[in-house]
Each structure stands twice: as structure tokens, then as C-alpha cells.
Amino acid sequence: MLKGIPKILSPELLKVLCEMGHSDRIVIADGNFPVESMGKNAIVVRMDGHGTCEVLEAILQLFPLDTYVEHPVQLMEVMKGDPVETPIWEKYKQILDKEDKRGAEVIEQTERFAFYEEARKAYAIIATGESALYANIMLQKGVVSE
After folding, report:
1. Residue 100 annotated as catalytic
2. Is the pTM of this model over 0.70?
3. Is 66 part of the annotated catalytic residue set?
């Protein structure tokens, strides 16, 4: 046990976050995301019993977002014609408002297959048990300056 570390973050995930350097990316994937096939060249961390919001909130307590790019956070855009609502995105915005002074301005929506291509290049992918649709979120790590 360590003081000040969110309990949801396993030793495996803490190691991954520590290993990541500036501009490396990590995907927090929902339960439908093809984690294993997308993560063939990435470290896959299983967090099946948790949702994306709680994982995002915990990671952002330790992980600075990249300040050298306009949008260090990517969401998978809803496919044209898909009638899905994405209320989880509002929760992401609230978390980002709390953890980054730029708030929701850091978010960019990325077309589904472009998101997959970027996910294939990620340093790590976290498999969650999130049931919300289009809940995949990719973070680009910034510089720790403190």
C-alpha cells in the first residue's frame, strides 16, 4: 500500500504509467473494444470490474496531459447513422475540468477507424468493464514538471 495513490490503480498499471514518456498514449477501452487485437504491440492491462470514468479519474491524478498538442484526449466518434447517445462524454468533460485547466478543450473526436489506427500505436490499452457505448478514450501523456 502507498499513500496518495488511488486504490484502483494496480501495481501493473502504476508501472505502465511510470514507464510512459512524453507523447506516449494510453487507451481506456470500454467493454466492447477489441483490446487484444488492437493491443498486439501494446501492454494490455485488465481492469474488467471497473468503469472508464473511475479509471480516467484515477489516472489523471498522476498523469499530466500533453500541453504541446491541442487535443491530447481523443474520443471515438459516433458512426454516422448510429442513434447512440453518449452521456458518458459529459462525465469525461467534468473529470477533465477538474484535472486539467484547459478542461473540455483538450478533447477531439476521432472517426472510428482512425481511432483504431491510433490505438494500434498506443503504449498501453486498459480493458475495462464499461458498458456505455463509444466510451473509449485515448490520453496522450505530457511532461511532469513538478
Report:
1. no
2. yes
3. yes
